[in-house]
Amino acid sequence: MELKELRIEYRKNPVGLDVTKPRFSWKIVSTESNVLQTAYRIVVTKAGELIWDSGKRESDTSVLIEYEGSALTACTVYRVQVEAWDNNGNYGAAEGSFETGLLKGTNFSADWITHDFADEETACPVFFKDFQLEKEIETVRVYATSLGIYEIKMNGEKLGDSFFAPGWTNYNKRLQYQTYTVDELQPGQNKIEITVGNGWYKGIFGFVCTPNHYGDRVATLAEIHVKYSDGTKEIIKTDNTWKVTTGRIRSSEIYMGETIDSTFINQKCSPVVVTTFDKNRLVAQESEPVRITQKLPAKELIITPKGEKVIDFGQILTGFIKVKVHGETGQKITVRHAEALDKDGNFYPDTLRQAISVDTFICNGQEQSFLPHFTFHGFRYISIEGLDNIDLENFTACVLHTDMEPTGTFTCSNQLVNQLQSNIQWSQRGNFLDIPTDCPQRDERLGWTGDAQVFAGTAAYNYNVSLFFTKWLRDLASEQTKEFGVPHVVPNILGDQDGAAAWSDAAVIIPWMIYETYGDARVLEAQYESMTGWVDYITARCGSNGLWQIGFQYGDWLALDKEESADRTGATDVYLVANAYYAYSTNLVRKAAEVLNKHEDAEKYSNLYRTIKKAFNKEYITATGRLVSETQTACVLALYFDLAEEKHRKRILQSLETNIANHKNHLSTGFVGTPYLCHTLTENNRHDLAGTIFLKDDYPSWLYAVKKGATTIWERWNSILPNGDFETSGMNSLNHYAYGSIGEWMYRRLAGINQLEPGYKKILIKPQLMKGITFVEATYKSVYGKIKSAWTCQNQRIKVEVEIPANTTALLLLPEKEEPIELGSGRYQYEYETTTVLEIEKFSMESTLKELLDEPLAVELLNQHSPGLTEHPMIQFAHNLSISEVLAKAPDESVVMFKSVIEALNQNEQSKS
Ligand code: BGC
């Protein structure tokens, strides 16, 4: 048995940690089965001195164990040793460390510095200082932040590998600082330069593309802490001795792009201006930083019909292009970005709206590489101007996002579904850039709470999102008020708006998801006031019927069941949606209160939940079980949120089935109904129907976009219309993760990986077969270790393979078996007989008449039965009807005839394969 992956606050040996009571987690890796931890011991030391010894504790807890030693001191390295024992008498140990940061912002003794350049100056200021170090150096740390986004160079080399520091938080209350380790510093003359771009702080941002959301001057604050080998220390800090100039970055805006002039030499420099910004707002970096996580080579050079030189990277991504070039001095290269080509094959940047996303590079006559610093784009294609010969090898797409640990994989027998999974993960990567954004390309890129809420469950399968969301939830809470509730975007640059259902519910749903996924109760504790605050906000706005029926709502945003209208809210009654979420969130708050042992609150919210449910039934469900809006989404909410009375569930399910049948087995849901539609069907014994909807590949469906060549999830079901035109409402992103929320159903229902106890301490493996998919293999790296569920159903045999990590247990429900199996950790395989056939026949009663008549065999057989039938002049009018529609009123004899033709066609297909 081994202890692996010792993590401190989810991180490996973190440096610059300001958590006063860090939590320790480790994984037990063992070749034995049924392994459970029986005891652990944690020892923390500082420079050899014992700071905390937990002693040997009889416990099976191996995740998020809180430090209980004396108060930590700033800028200090702590060593951590963990020992653990298991039920087989084995012993393992692991070691790690953490280093505290400044612990509080007021421990910064540096001054904030800014510049007093003229207002029209767009170039990024470069703050710098030359400094002398006299003695042999042991360690160097730099603590830094900015108003704007910054990059530090030490003696010409960039510090660290992150981008967009200090990240985006609610700067009115919170601003992160970063810690850098510097290994190369030598005694003698040294130079530090800090370049600051406008970023989110001062840059052009928001729907109307205005600047200065938080302030009109960028600034920076930094300290270099040098520890000499003789034990003495020195701090070099930003103050009035620094100078400021402008450099090669002549302009940079997140939406607009960056201009780098490598011929630019600035002779002028000015003294800096010392300024102030509340240091109490400073917090250490809370989530993983944004990094370049992958580099994609250029795939193809395209000269478009309009003559544009376009490079295709084969994948929509978020980031920028690195260009290697040997140009003439002053030669200007322009790089534009777009997600798509139009149907004629021309460059199509319209989905960016006003975010023009143009990077401009001016060459210096040497061989050089250009890479933007303070901008990012959402794109697949770039159009190049200013270069005669394009060598694809000189262009690389750099993929940028918060560097979360990948945790999930999903593959199956259907290649379109595998592409869907890839699209979901790419949309997550494209939109988890420091905050969860709606889209990464147009003039938005905002932390829309609703989008994050509907996608969070899927996100947590694909990547470890604990730190990412913990940071963002703190901002959410910091933006929340009694008067307006939870804003629609976090950080909120849209001003005060009353909270809206499904969007503001992120305040409750996401902390609960983090608790369930990682067993992290501290998030619940930290967010508790925000969670209850949101429910209480709604309660305060309810009418005498106990329901929330006033104010603006997004409803089932972008649902297809209402003609596109200005409000885009779908056909489901917006207040039905609002009250469904009100009940759902209240119940989650009740559960959170229970976890936190707040008994009075638990009772209060439990009573409230019952009252809302009653009022909901009274208002939205008739005495005979009809919903006021019989939309797919309304039925889904009534069932999935467990709102309808037991006696009405059957009828509501029938309404849902009828509605789906009326849409020829297609969905018509928007942001609210989509994440739950397939879950609801699966939970209510209609997994078959969920599977049918899931595998549809004509409009509207998940696979429709895949078939249209999508490499990310689209904002709309019809972002690209069947005829190749783009949807033209002015709101059409090709990289919007909300509908990627189906990913959770794929992991939970198809692969069957579920948690039964927080953090997957107890796991439910319940794979569910579906027609059209013959194997699924999924893995999820939980906080305890890897979980695997894989099945195949072929040739009358079902095979299931399961892996359960040490220190957890599982319940396994095998497909087509009644009895659940209790499992301890280990690897298991099962194989048994079945009569189930999952392969889909190519032809069915749902095939169109044309599909049949395209087959010579069908024509031959039909004419054998009824000579001249296929030549009948009326037959062409029925081409697009399904066979069951054609036969709706036909005699039984015709039905039998068509069925036999279909059978013959399928047999023919089988013999071909
Ligand atoms: C965003 C959405 C968001 C919505 C709410 C849009 O502009 O892109 O995804 O949730 O607005 O109105």
From TrEMBL:
Which domain of life, per UniProt? Bacteria
Segments forming domain Alpha-L-rhamnosidase concanavalin-like = 304-401
Domain Alpha-L-rhamnosidase six-hairpin glycosidase, residue spans: 407-749
Reactions that this protein is recorded to catalyse: Hydrolysis of terminal non-reducing alpha-L-rhamnose residues in alpha-L-rhamnosides
Question: From its record, what is one biological process in GO terms?
Answer: carbohydrate metabolic process
One Pfam family it belongs to: Bac_rhamnosid_C
Show where the Bacterial alpha-L-rhamnosidase N-terminal domain sits.
Answer: 135-294
Any one GO molecular-function label of the UniProt entry = alpha-L-rhamnosidase activity
Its EC number(s): 3.2.1.40
Keywords, ordered alphabetically: Hydrolase
* Annotated ranges, domain Alpha-L-rhamnosidase C-terminal: 752-822
Top enzyme class, one word, equals hydrolase
**What name appears for this protein in its UniProt entry?**
alpha-L-rhamnosidase
